[in-house]
């Protein structure tokens, strides 16, 4: 009997030893898991309390009332479900981020300059013999001064005032021109207010006298080369940032009930990296009667972009097609324009750049048939196109409604870190007319950057007329022009 009992004890003891390695680890694992969960809950509660403290401090910094739930002690999360707890953390995090952004914005406003003054003084000497006949040269000294005042009463509000004085040396009149008291040349180049980020959206509005420039500047540009520049009285709405849409209206002439206005819709859209598309339409309306009557729409599409290879060489393009339709006086308008430019830029220190392009503006060889087929360039940046001699500034007037074709090759390169030189060659012809060939123009340019503030620019030009130019300008002598310009910015 005793042996049986001993055997039983031994069996139980052995069975216990066999089961011990399996049971003990399972119990330890469960205990460790529970401990980890408890530690995790404590950490989450700690983080929650920290977020609530931070939210309380941020509200105090901004001068906001502290919510009752944020005052005093901090409650445990034991009675909250996981979804409720996650929702509270998300709300706390969003509120903290919002308050942080507000504090950052107020700090930026405090550091931001409320008022800034910049300016530019530009003097240009021009020597020109461009009448193709006499050989007599005209010498002019031009002076343009601008002071730009920028005010920022808030981070989303900007006020621009730009005063301009543009004059020819010796242009004052009177008994003693050395006394200047009438200041006829001084005016506001710009005076507008801009509201940005309206209602927290990428929407801005500019109201007042302002410069407008769109796309290639073939139709609407600043005209910065001129001694007095161009500006419009109007309102512009813009939606978007990298890609954007502009909608604007500008009053060209106040004429009572017969005003002349310009309306526009312009889109700048990113197609992919380095390539953009710009569809647009501009509408002109002059309610005057007779020859001043104008009802014309001009619309087009511009595509441009570039790509740089692994070796640093860049190839680019610019393609634009424009149509024009409507009524001018008693004539129907149907005209068009096309332009194409291809460019290459090297990777060496000289940064050589070559551009090859062609411009075509339709012409009209039957001006009395009731249809106007000559393209009108509206308000372009004139000096940028059709040669630096500026013989074709106003199209179609300067070509007698014959339109224009411009075959061009332009090359530029850096001669040093501060000097860049270039040569531009054009062949001009009428789109329509008895004698279409107008001639060739060659422009040599040198730009010297004397300092960060001062730039010196020189250009020498020659135009060799062909039969079309001889017929329209009444002479066959070559035309010459040279200029020297000093520009200082502050």
Secondary structure tally: strands: 19
Average pLDDT metric: 87
Principal-axes shape call: elongated
Structural class: alpha+beta
The string of secondary-structure elements, in order, is HHEEEEEEEEEEEEEEEEEEHE
Give the C-alpha Rg.
Answer: 37 Å
From the N-terminal CA to the C-terminal CA, the straight-line distance is 116 Å
> Level of helix content?
10-25%
Keywords, please?
single chain, 490 residues, alpha+beta, Porin, 2 domains, 18-stranded antiparallel barrel, 3 helices, 19 strands, elongated
Can you offer a commentary on this structure?
With 490 residues, the protein is an alpha+beta fold. The protein has helices spanning 2-62, 82-111, 467-473; strands spanning 115-129, 138-154, 157-168, 186-195, 203-210, 232-240, 244-253, 260-272, 275-286, 294-308, 314-328, 331-345, 353-361, 371-372, 404-414, 419-429, 437-449, 454-465, 479-489. 20% of the residues lie in helices and 45% in strands. It has an 18-stranded antiparallel beta barrel. A hairpin with a 4-residue loop joins strand 15 and strand 16. Helix 1 packs parallel to helix 2 (82-111). The protein is elongated and about 105 Å long. The N and C termini lie far apart (116 Å).
